[in-house]
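Worked example 2:
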Amino acid sequence: MDHSIDTVKRAFEHRFTGRIPRGEIWLGTDLFKKANLEDNLEGHIELVKRLGQDFLCLPLSHDISTNKALGYRHFSLKEIEEASRISDLFLTAIIDGPFQRLAEKNGLMKILTRWKRERYEVAKEYEKERAEVDILITRCLELSVDSVIIADDLAGESSTFVDPREIQDLFSSFYIQAVSKIHRGRSYALFHSCGNIKGLVPQLLSFGFDGLAAIQHRTNDLIGLKEKYGSNLTLMAGIDAEILEAGQISLSGMKEFERLLKSLVSQGGFILCSSSGLFSGEFFEKIEELYRIADELFRD
């Protein structure tokens, strides 16, 4: 899409964008099957442009495999380098944070149990993961990505897994250093977590994050967050999984979606994105419909 990079940068700067910028963190393999495209870099670029999105988001990992839970693939640094060279889209690398990596390797419940009983050992493992993440961030910045999303699932449906005070004590050093490095690389830093992270937003902003990516409205009240934090917070959100998974969007669901968009667009610093990723081929027509609604609202 023409001027995608400028459009997204204006959104981060809370300036008028001319239209609602849009993108997705995760595009699932099943979605590419629906679109008759290969789930590779070229397929991602083609699908992003076909949907009229502005972001090219590539989940990064040394292990190039498919995430079994959501059905999306990871990309290598070499592929990010190629994307930087051939794409005119806003390029974003998604990197799992140290806590996320620990949870994926050991299991979330095991880490949470050990957190209470073996804090020192877990902290040492965390520092090892931190060093690996730091290397990936450095390499992405060398490849001129436009933004980095650090994905650390720290919360469940109702609250964080770990006391926010412990997050401040044990994780803040990594986040502050990582965000500072991203900003020195002239890129934007976003944070992703599933679940209810409302209580963490002041901390995340104090760490320097520019915004939040793919977070849920239902559990986090995006309108309230924007009203409270204003131009300090960019949101890449707006489409919860429930509206994608519904066979047909209900009248009440449509009205809530329109209310949310009108509020977030009016306050600036907003990029339309789902909280779950487009992991199902059945979401193809639904996301096109939601984009049409967003465009009509914006023109009105």
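The two ends are 22 Å apart (CA to CA). Strands lie at 55-59, 66-67, 72-73, 90-96, 147-151, 188-192, 211-213, 234-239, 270-274.
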